[in-house]
Design brief:
Layout: H1 6-40, H2 45-61, E1 67-73, E2 78-84, E3 87-92, E4 97-100, H3 103-106, E5 119-124, E6 130-136, E7 144-150, E8 155-167, E9 170-174, E10 178-182, E11 188-193, E12 198-204, E13 211-215, H4 216-228, H5 231-240
Antiparallel strand pairs: 1-2, 2-3, 3-4, 5-6, 6-7, 7-8, 8-9, 9-10, 10-11, 12-13
Length: 251
């Protein structure tokens, strides 16, 4: 019987392991693809119709003091997000349950002052993954909390606390020294230093036709320079520059 050399044996072992690895990886990918397909097709057409009718029925029975934020309908969830009395709720048509989304109970850093308005505004992102909400955090009207609720993971994140402004489909939050921009999904897209001493003026940029922002110190120095050219100062300067006029003697 012919023996296999050690070098040849090692090659066979390596080749066998490589083939088995490829088979395992291929099976794993096929299994994942099958699971994803099952997830995407989790509702049959009949179920989708039934869930849509449930949403219609719930929406019709909400009273006038309720504001519907968004109606959610996709391959994994059917529901209605609505606000009432400074609180926000999620009706789940699949489970046929209604639950309050209480930011503070999910995250103690997410302060909500019900006496100052509670949840003030809310919106669902275009992909129906998150609820972005702005909440009153206390009596200071300039301070708000921008929070994000994950509809899939059921978790709440504090994005920022400060002066919150709607910016198109996203938000701008002015913190103490920062200006932070968020997109419609609550992802931070930019952050820059915010100088509170910058103000809008009436002057415009010739090229862009936009208000020019200047520091207060620059405006004050310009006001000082301008104030020095008063009528009294001009008169004094004229008096000091006067030369004697020769006297004409007729004799």
């Amino acid at each position: 019987m012919k023996t296999i050399e050690p070098k040849t044996m090692r090659k066979l072992v390596v080749t066998t392991i490589a083939v088995l690895t490829i088979i395992v990886v291929t099976m794993f990918i096929a299994t994942c693809s099958s699971n994803n397909a099952d997830t995407r097709n989790s509702f049959t057409p009949q179920q989708q119709l039934q869930l849509s009718e449930q949403l219609d029925s719930i929406a019709a029975h909400l009273d006038d003091s309720t504001k519907i934020v968004s109606r959610i309908s996709n391959d994994t969830q059917y529901g209605i997000v609505y606000m009432k009395g400074g609180r926000i709720y999620l009706y789940d048509a699949v489970e046929n349950t209604t639950n309050e989304i209480n930011p503070y109970k999910m995250n103690v850093a997410a302060r909500v002052s019900q006496s100052d308005g509670g949840i003030l505004t809310a919106r669902v992102d275009a992909d129906e993954n998150y609820i972005l909400m702005v909440a009153a955090t206390g009596p200071k009207t300039i301070e708000r909390g921008l929070y994000r609720y994950d509809l899939h993971r059921k978790k709440l994140t504090v994005l920022s606390v400060g002066k919150v402004e709607v910016n198109g489909s996203g938000f701008i939050v002015y913190e103490k020294d920062l200006e932070i921009h968020f997109n419609s999904s609550g992802d931070k897209i930019s952050e820059l230093l915010h100088n509170e001493n910058i103000e809008d003026t009436d002057s415009t940029d010739i090229n862009e036709d936009k208000p020019v922002k200047r520091r207060r110190s620059e405006q004050v120095s310009e006001e000082i320079e301008t104030s020095e050219e008063t009528p009294e100062n001009i008169l004094k300067e004229a008096e000091t520059n006067l030369e004697p006029v020769p006297r004409l003697d007729n004799q």
